[in-house]
């Protein structure tokens, strides 16, 4: 009860802070405050920072013909400016106003693409430049737009006449001043960090006094030190956040060098930690493990970032600050969530997946978590975040963490995680020829009085993954048959995997030109049920799951094993 009261108090404190933050934002967008965003217009752009995000000239052509494939949705404007039409999809609108799609115009490299980019920027300035409100001026979206306008200023300004040149620089200056006033009060998380990155880009790319660069560098360093953990993970515990932040930090480091300025040590240190962390979360096929908001992976994007990683050797196996473990032998990779939930402030995408794991062999995934449908319907997100969507155990079909379902809260904060494990213990048990760990969480103690302990061992050069799931009362009290001790251990199977029975009635996981794995469990007969894999590139896909169901009063622990029976000859993980 005390824990629930504490979570409720913390949640409503966040609601109050967000309400006050939005009130101040409205005030700062009003006529009384707006004069502070006026000032000197920069004379020119000194340097256009690089952009590491993938670009496709074909998308530039689609945009020219009025088709905007943004945020997983295609919108046809019918000859109108995209800033004139009302599109109900919030993600599409944020992507439109973020202007990252300018990179496709740059990749096209034609006068037509440059003219179209200039026309669209001109439309935005005319329709939204003087109206500081709505999605267009959300601070996180403004930060993306500032970075994009600077990175692709050479394309936007190519062949521009003087009036547009001045209007572009004047609007950019207003957005930078607005972002500077809002950055300190932005909600915690990567948007606030991106705002600091955008202001550092601006201080380097536009004529500015030395004091402006010093202030931007100092604020950036403070935010990096606070948000990037000692093992390179992000405070949100979302692997995608590591990728997204690196895509901004690497060009920023290069911009400091191009301007003969010394980057802050916090920037250098963050990049040096985050590149190995990105490799930690990466399966051998290049995709990232599906934990805490991670969905489908665009492999080329990760490869582009990792070209800047000169770290030698295999990825680290232990990420204690981020709360993850990795086992890697014989071309087999196991990645497991062994950490506490992230802070409530940054838990809007967090999952109730404590002690869940994923298994890949070579370039094929076998055991996965459901992940999220990045651009899909919001109503499916709670299903993807639930414990049952992860390869771990549930008690009485209940998640190990709770999410806010209050409409008032969700309107302000999204759907934060407001309850979950308070204590997660993890110990590596590596030995010669064996990698493993034992971890335990107390997420089910307040409601059901159970601790969940999981042991995983990868051995025999990656051929055997042995697991044990144990359920006990705190203090080893006796487990009674009270109807609240029903255990379900799930193993979600990747939709590309065929699930068959061999002549011994054992379950076999197999795929064309890939390894085969046999699932066995001594005490409980496994069952096969339907499942959904949300993280497909084309959206959700039907899949299956192996289920071990039993009562803790009948048995307090279950042993299971995945054994590789044929080896496709993949190289060791890198």
Cα distance, first to last residue?
Answer: 46 Å
Bin the strand percentage.
15-25%
Instruction: Say what oligomer this is.
Output: single chain
* Percent helix range: 25-40%
Number of helices: 17
Point out poorly predicted stretches. Answer: 569-574
The number of strands is 21
Protein name: Heparinase
Main location: periplasm
GO molecular function: lyase activity
Domain Heparinase II/III-like C-terminal: 313-561
Features:
single chain; 574 residues; alpha+beta; nine-stranded antiparallel β-sheet; eight-stranded antiparallel β-sheet; 17 helices; 21 strands; 36% helix; signal; lyase; lyase activity; Heparinase; Chondroitin_lyas
Brief sketch in words of this structure:
With 574 residues, this protein is α+β, with helices and mostly antiparallel strands.
Model description:
It is a single chain. The chain has helices at 2-29, 31-34, 57-64, 90-98, 102-108, 111-128, 139-151, 153-156, 162-182, 190-205, 210-227, 239-258, 265-280, 299-306, 381-385, 407-413, 445-448, and strands at 67-70, 73-76, 318-319, 324-329, 332-337, 357-361, 364-368, 393-395, 402-403, 417-419, 424-428, 434-441, 451-459, 464-472, 486-493, 498-501, 507-510, 516-521, 527-533, 541-551, 557-566. It is an alpha+beta fold and 574 residues long. Strands 3, 4, 5, 6, 7, 8, 15, 19 and 20 form a nine-stranded antiparallel β-sheet that branches. It has an eight-stranded antiparallel β-sheet with strand order 11-12-13-14-21-18-17-16, with no helix packed on it. A two-stranded antiparallel sheet has the order 1-2. Strand 17 (507-510) and strand 18 form a beta hairpin. The longest helix is centred in the first third of the chain and has 28 residues, at 2-29. The two termini are 46 Å apart.
């Amino acid at each position: 009860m005390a824990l629930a009261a504490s979570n409720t108090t913390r949640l409503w404190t966040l609601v109050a802070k967000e309400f006050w933050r939005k009130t101040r934002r409205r005030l700062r967008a009003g006529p009384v405050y707006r004069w502070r965003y006026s000032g000197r217009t920069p004379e020119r752009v000194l340097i256009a920072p690089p952009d590491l995000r993938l670009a496709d000239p074909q998308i530039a052509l689609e945009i020219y013909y009025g088709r905007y494939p943004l945020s997983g949705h295609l919108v046809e404007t019918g000859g109108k400016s995209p800033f004139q039409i009302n599109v109900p999809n919030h993600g599409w609108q944020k992507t439109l106003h973020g202007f990252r799609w300018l990179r496709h115009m740059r990749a096209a490299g034609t006068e037509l693409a440059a003219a179209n980019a200039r026309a669209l920027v001109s439309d935005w300035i005319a329709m939204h430049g003087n109206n500081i409100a709505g999605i267009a001026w959300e601070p996180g979206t403004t930060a993306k737009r500032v970075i994009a306008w600077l990175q692709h200023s050479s394309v936007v300004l190519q062949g521009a006449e003087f009036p547009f040149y001045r209007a572009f620089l004047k609007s950019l200056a207003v957005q930078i001043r607005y972002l500077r006033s809002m950055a300190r009060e932005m909600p915690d998380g990567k948007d606030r960090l991106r705002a600091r990155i955008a202001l550092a880009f601006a201080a380097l790319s536009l004529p500015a006094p030395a004091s402006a660069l010093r202030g931007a560098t100092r604020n950036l360093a403070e935010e990096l030190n606070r948000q990037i953990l000692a093992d390179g993970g992000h405070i949100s515990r979302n692997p995608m956040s590591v990728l997204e932040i690196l895509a901004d930090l690497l060009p920023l480091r290069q911009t400091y060098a191009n301007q003969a300025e010394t980057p802050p040590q916090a920037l250098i240190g963050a990049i040096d930690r985050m590149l190995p962390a990105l490799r930690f979360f990466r399966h051998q096929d290049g995709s990232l493990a599906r934990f805490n908001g991670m969905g489908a992976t665009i492999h080329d994007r990760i490869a582009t970032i990792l070209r800047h990683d000169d770290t030698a050797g295999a990825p680290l196996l232990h990420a204690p600050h981020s709360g993850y473990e990795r086992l890697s032998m014989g071309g087999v990779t196991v990645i497991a969530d062994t950490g506490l939930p992230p802070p409530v402030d940054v838990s809007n995408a967090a999952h109730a997946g404590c002690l869940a794991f994923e298994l890949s062999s070579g370039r094929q995934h076998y055991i996965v978590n459901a992940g999220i449908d990045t651009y899909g319907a919001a109503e499916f997100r709670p299903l993807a975040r639930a414990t049952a969507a992860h390869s771990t155990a549930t008690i009485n079909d209940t998640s190990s963490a709770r999410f806010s379902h209050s409409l008032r809260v969700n309107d302000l904060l999204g759907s934060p995680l407001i309850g979950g494990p308070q204590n997660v213990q993890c110990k590596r048990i590596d030995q010669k020829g064996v990698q493993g760990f034992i971890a335990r969480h107390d997420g089910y103690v307040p409601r059901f009085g159970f601790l969940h302990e999981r042991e995983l061992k990868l051995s025999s050069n990656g051929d055997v993954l042995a697991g044990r799931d144990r359920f006990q009362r705190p203090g080893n009290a006796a487990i009674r048959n009270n109807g609240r001790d029903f255990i379900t251990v799930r193993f979600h199977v990747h939709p590309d995997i065929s699930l068959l029975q061999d002549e011994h009635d054992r379950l076999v996981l197999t795929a064309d030109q890939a390894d085969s794995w046999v699932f066995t469990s001594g005490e409980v007969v496994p069952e096969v049920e339907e499942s959904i894999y949300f993280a497909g590139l084309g959206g959700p896909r039907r899949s299956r799951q192996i289920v071990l169901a039993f009562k803790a009063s009948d048995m307090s622990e279950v042993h299971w094993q995945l054994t590789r029976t044929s080896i496709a000859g993949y190289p060791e993980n890198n």
